[in-house]
Amino acid sequence: MIVHPAVIFAFHGYAVSFAWFVAIDILNSFVLQAPLYNCTPSINGLANIPKLVGNLFGAWARAWLVDKYSDYRSTKVAGVFEPEACVHLLIITAVSVPAECLAFGFEVAQTLHWTALRVFFGYGMVTVGLAFVLVCSLVYVSDCYLPVNSGCLLLVNGLGDVIAFGFLYGVLP
Question: Where in this chain does the entry annotate a coiled-coil region (predicted)?
Answer without folding.
Answer: none
